[in-house]
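**User:** My hope is that you can spare some time for a protein that puzzles me. As I understand it, each token names a local backbone shape. I would be glad if you read both lines and explained how they fit together. The protein I mean follows directly.
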Amino acid sequence: MKAFTRPNDTTGFAKSSPDSVAMKLMSLTTLVIILASATGFVPETTQPLKRFIPSWGRMSSSESFATTSDAVESKISNCVPESLYLPLSQGSRRTLLSKVAGTLLSASAVIPILSVNAQTVNAEVGTLPELSDTNVVLQGLTVNVADKSQQDGMISFLIDSFDFKVLRKRQSGDVTETWLGFGPEQLSIPETFTLPVSSFSEYGGHASINIRYDSKTTDVLYRKGDDAPGNNIAFLQVGVPNYRISQMVKNGGNIIDAYGIVDVVTPCGLPMRGIVGICPDPIMFLAINCRDMQEAKKFYESLGFAEQEYPYARPSKGMGQFEPLQPKGSVYLAPSRNSMGILLLKSAKRKKIVPNPVLRTLNIVYKPDAEDAAGTASGTSLPDPSNVGISLSPINKFEAELSSA
């Protein structure tokens, strides 16, 4: 199998006038308390300006700003707590969110972060600046349901329990597909998204769960109340501001554990884990049990994944009862530090890995290279070493599907 190559990190923002930054700051006339969570983030930029969050106090409209970036930076540093002063070199928006949430955890108001206006960039896959460091993205997963009642139950379960939203639907012959997630799937900035007004749920690049129902199927994949079928899938983790255990039970979920976190088998048989926290995209990662960790790691690296810092949904980063630490010996991989990923877990020795038939595929969107301009891998489905199906779709086909929906 031909390996996907990873491009060099790029940014892709046009230079912004310090005067425009000054105008944004001078427009602050009231006290602001900010949690950079569901409502905004500071994108990557080539400017020497540091990411910033305005703090307590008021910026005088008569205060003058120099026209050099150093002077603007100096003004910013004078009104920002040191604990929130995050240089650009310190990484992703996930780092920023954790830092801000840790400092302002008790805040009750949520206001978007001021930032330099972003311009469209030529990212490797799509045009989101956050994905400029990769030519593949893990867009989500597809799960099978056995009948109409299981389809309806799964949709209601996700909406009522975790606040998923229906993103799109498609009917093709006997197959009905419903995509759910927390925001637009498009790999570009939506035209309706405006900084600093729009929330992050209106930004692009969100992963999704595709619920697939084939009315001709006669397979009984899962029976309500049972444990999850198979054992290659440990859980799908989501980090949300809140979840509702009563709605999980009402819609056919099987609660396994609900102390601090919740582990539940969904109405269709997909195991899920819910964490009360804040994430750029609440669909965080899929945890996979592996017989051979190195083999699995090499497989996903050949698809363009890379080892990344383990994501947490809470600022305590696993140091508490409400979110566990990264499992010992596990490996977290993702195409980008800003996308959904996978967590490879080492299974017990001599334990046979049995596929969960409910999970149809992990869905990867990629940018074809010059030799594969037409996207000849489109529709290809191949298993990983743990028998998890992988579906490959070129970016042009993915965008066409979104447009038609």
User: Anything to note?
Assistant: Residues 4 and 304 are 5 Å apart (CA to CA). Residues 17-116 form one domain.
